[in-house]
Amino acid sequence: MQIQEVSRPSWLKTKKRIGRGGKRGTYSGKGNKGQKARSGGSIPPGFEGQDTTLVQRSPKIRGFVSPNLPNIEISLDVLEKHFKSGDKVTPLVLKEKKIIKLSKRSRARKVARVKILANGKITKKLIIEGCFVSKSAREAIEKAGGNIGEGGKNKEEKHEVKNTKLS
User: Fold this and answer.
1) Cα gap 90→100, rounded to integer Å
2) What are phi and psi of 32, to 5 degrees?
């Protein structure tokens, strides 16, 4: 190996500056004339000449989607059928047992808002957490010996509590 055969490592090589004369010839690899042959002559991305751009041709998403999720309603009959006495009832357990199915909007949160309604009868002692419960369903569950955790309060009850604190 001789000194003229030694080359710089690739990360040390200088970038070739074109369009300033030198070994690349008259046009320096930019072709003849035109917008892209000029200095500063760049075309914005998405530009398609006189045609309407792809972004403008694509359909627009219209309408409004509320960030508030609708409640998934479950009756007491369903809880009576699928749970044993002393079981814990949460939205995740309901999802695992495939009692509830998440809607497209609630999939992002992985958990749905569940409300238990007093349709039917219940005789088992269930522990309910993270679900909204109607007043009559609450009475039926407590009468059967079950209890409702912290997440089982209705929004109306929360508003009533807030209003009494303010006055």
Assistant:
1) 11
2) -95, 125
Going from the C-alpha of 165 to that of each of 30, 129, 155, 161, the distances in angstroms are 75, 25, 16, 6
- 113-167 pLDDT per residue, tens: 889 999 999 999 999 998 999 999 999 999 999 999 875 555 444 444 444 444 4
| Nearest alpha carbon to residue 72 among 123, 107, 48 | 107
Write out the H or E segment, with its range, that includes residue 5.
Answer: none
The pTM of the whole model exceeds 0.85: no
Residue 65 lies in a domain: no
Give the amino acid at 43. Answer: I
* Residue among 62, 70, 88, 71 nearest 141 (CA): 88
Partners of residue 73 on adjacent β-strands:
115
- DSSP one-letter code for 71: E
Does residue 64 lie in a domain region? no
Counting Cα atoms < 13 Å in the Cβ hemisphere of 80 gives 14
Nearest to 149 by CA among 122, 116, 123, 120: 116
Structural domain boundaries enclosing 145: 71-154
Q: What's the number of domains the chain is made of?
A: 1
H helices of 14-60, in order, are: 54-57
CATH number at residue 144: 3.100.10.10
